[in-house]
Design a protein that fits this description.
This protein is of the alpha/beta class. It folds into two domains: 1-56; 66-161, Alpha-Beta Plaits (2-Layer Sandwich), CATH 3.30.70. 47% of the residues lie in helices and 15% in strands. It has four helices and five strands; from the N terminus they run αβαββαββα. It has helices spanning 2-50, 78-88, 116-126, 155-161, and strands at residues 66-71, 92-98, 108-111, 131-133, 143-147. It has a five-stranded mixed beta sheet with strand order 2-1-5-3-4, covered by helices on one side. The chain is rod-shaped. It starts with a helix and ends with a helix. The mean pLDDT is 84.
Length: 165
């Protein structure tokens, strides 16, 4: 009888060891998952609030350039066609009309508010390099485009105007 009682103890001891190992494995698994979860939340917090030098710069607002288009060559409807072209390019055409005369040999960009980069942006859009500055803030616009007799040579406008006007 003594042998049986010893073997029962061994059996229950082995079962206890197995259960202890299983419990320990379960505890280690739970601890591992907890650590992974803590690292996950830390990385989110670090990226969102603690990361040095990772700030996104504020979005740069694109300034809408207000343009006046004046016909300085006397071709009927030319200013209207160029208006459509510039609006497709993102410019705000606020006035269309005739220049003081129709004797402008060259197309001209006039900066009206002291913002030469804006004037050059319009100049590049129509394909010219003739930019001057005549400030007149009473006009409530940024740039004046005066279309001269050379309008047919302006490459960006050729496709819009057909090149044979």
């Amino acid at each position: 009888m003594k042998k049986r009682s010893r073997s029962k103890k061994k059996g229950s001891a082995n079962a206890g060891k197995k259960r202890g190992l299983r419990d320990r494995g379960l505890e280690l698994g739970i601890l591992f998952l907890f650590l992974v979860l803590v690292l996950f939340f830390y990385s989110i917090v670090y990226q969102r609030w603690l990361s040095p030098g990772q700030e996104q710069p504020p979005p740069v607002e694109q300034k809408v350039i207000r343009v006046e288009i004046l016909n300085g060559c006397g071709v009927a409807g030319l200013a209207g066609e160029v208006t459509d072209f510039l609006r497709l390019k993102g410019f705000d055409v606020v006035n269309v009309g005739n220049a003081e005369n129709f004797d402008f040999p060259e197309t001209l960009i006039v900066d009206r508010i002291g913002d030469m980069p804006a004037a050059w942006q319009v100049a590049r859009a129509v394909g010219i390099d003739n930019v001057i500055q005549q400030k007149d803030e009473d006009l409530l616009l940024d740039v004046t485009l005066i279309l001269g007799r050379d309008y047919q040579q302006l490459l960006p406008l050729k496709a819009v105007l057909g090149g044979d006007e």
